[in-house]
Amino acid sequence: MAAEDRITARPTTRIILAQVLGLVLVLAGIVYEAPQSDWNLPLFLILLGFSIFSDLTAVTTTSKFKVSGSFLALVLAMVFLGGAAAAVIGILTILAGWARWRDAGHYLLNNLLTYAAFPLIGGVISQQVVLETGITSNQPIFYALVFVVFLIALAINFALIVSYACYLARSSFLDKVRTALIPVLPSELAAALMAAGIAFLYVKAGIAAVALFGIVLVTYQYLIGALLLSQQRAEELEERSTQLASFQVGMLSALLRTLDLRDHMTARHSASVARYSRAIAQRAGFSRREQELVHVAALLHDIGKFILPDRILKANVSLSEEDWMLIRRHPQQGARVVSAVDGYGPVAQIILAHHERIDGTGYPRGIAADEIPAMARIISVADTYDVMTARDSYRDPVSTFDAIKELHAVSGTQLDARFVKIFVDLLEDEDIDFPHGQAVDFERELALQARIEDFASPSDDADRFLVPQI
Length: 470
Prior knowledge:
mainly alpha, 20 helices, three-stranded antiparallel sheet
């Protein structure tokens, strides 16, 4: 794992000098350990070739770290050649990568320090364990040692590279563990097992087994690349879905807020109808998804009133037939606006039908009974009640008692009798927390952030919302 030159911050002179000093000390350690290394030239060259090839074909994580299978080659070098030989392979690998990628000088310094340090340390640990315990390659515990050395080297490598990246970015080391290490940890553990397996084959079959290592290395490189590419695409898709949802829901929110500025009564009325409608849907046994559908549709049911001039929208005057024709167009206009938002087709259908009547004399299409979407029938009940009881209406408000009498009077002709009964039961049980159309919290009903998250979440439905018919 090596750092890429993607962070614009620069290290201080003190940090650069500290890294230079660290590299000098590691180089001195390599010289000191060189006599203890087994400089098996054929094995050295093969592992060096595989390490360089893997690094040049490395994949890059979303956290801007290059992850390569060179670890496999380096761990085998630590175990079979020793720390000094493994460190030389690490240094030559970084230099070969730098010749191609031309990372900034301070990144080259950090990578050289890292790829010299962890192979040296891992090789020395491996050699000391073998010397102290007397284990040989014929014992199973030797391959457990290979596995452990791999993990130790991985930890040192990650700590050195990521600590430096966090210093430059002024970011959290733990966040990097979560985003950069954990996603590839299963692959790295598999690679550690591969390293132990290849070590076993090398012991049993000799240098010819290293050819198999090359195939394994290429396969490993491909698999980890596919894993990270899949992760990156999933993250990008999630981010773009949230951005799209934010734009689409935010656009509707902006329309509602604009309507609120133009006519506060209409916005308050929409929020009231939304809360009433959700309560009816919940009592009627509709799913949470369907309750959200009717709530959204109720919030937007009067958005088509943008087409109405102020003399109609705000003035308490007698309306002409031409004015009424304009008013009857607002469901169609609202549905047209909302249907332009991807995934809001069912909401548009409800908005289009919210002024239809059970007896078929409503508008704009004159459909009747079960032809009207159930959610539109719910909104009609809530809409009728709020218009009668609201204190900011252009007519004198009536009491809840009188409003209930009127609901019963039009039940089965204008309004759906089932939803009228459910709503009346709610009112009589005092299960609605803002009777008589008093002011509601418009922003709470809008719940913009929660709506964005819900809209961005994956859905198995063909459309974003369901349109129940009962």
